[in-house]
Amino acid sequence: MTGIQTDRLPFMKMHGLGNDFVVVDERGIGQCVDADLARRVGDRHRGVGFDQLAVIREGSDADLELLFWNSDGSTAGACGNATRCIAAWEMARRGTDTLTLRTERGILHARDAGDGLTSVNMGAPILDWAAIPLASDVCTLHLPVEGDPVATGMGNPHCSFFVADAEAVDLSTFGPAHEHHPLFPERTNVQVAHLVAPDHLRMRVWERGAGLTLASGSSSCAVAVAAARRGITGRSVRIDLDGGTIHVEWRDDGVWMTGPTAHVFDGVLL
Q1: Which residues pair with residue 157 across a beta bridge?
Q2: CATH of residue 232
């Protein structure tokens, strides 16, 4: 324990396409989440279990402020599916169909897309090597790494491989080997994807600090941007992940992703 009071701490369990989250609303109760709590709650055998833990705080220049923790106690700069889940929940609570959310990516805009879908603009992709960040000045469209991946920043660093068959890749070894590649000083999310049709990709993901996940919003955005930059697809794509389907569109105002969300249950940490 760290001295932060966590007795009887309410939380919500949510998921977007199986990418699952514990959400703690700190509004009105003060700061109560730290790295130690994230690690303990993130343990799927002795805690609650999650891919990321999301913290809601009062926003000074947006409706909400969000912070994200990985299950290993590290922080994440962005978490697209958690952002969509929280946006859907908060819009329903407020009775509105738009919302602004501040993250490390800046102010993100969310909207109710109808039919149980929620859209979030994850902002413009980061394509400069130093800002992603990479350890050296290399071409982000063709990294000097076996497999010829693409580097993209979407609040987190991403390393995207286009392969013949994403399902044939053993991500349990491939993922961590590239998460810790020396070219990525802050580690990286790793994606493998193959083309199904000109506007359709199949993707699987390994997230830094979390491991193999059923889906990842920021990873989906990164792969869509990488595929468009390579000329593999256009700027609007359907992406099939292990947990379901998300739609990503790289527009002039940023990268929009649209998909379903689920509020699974409410609980209390004892």
Answers
A1: 153
A2: 3.10.310.10
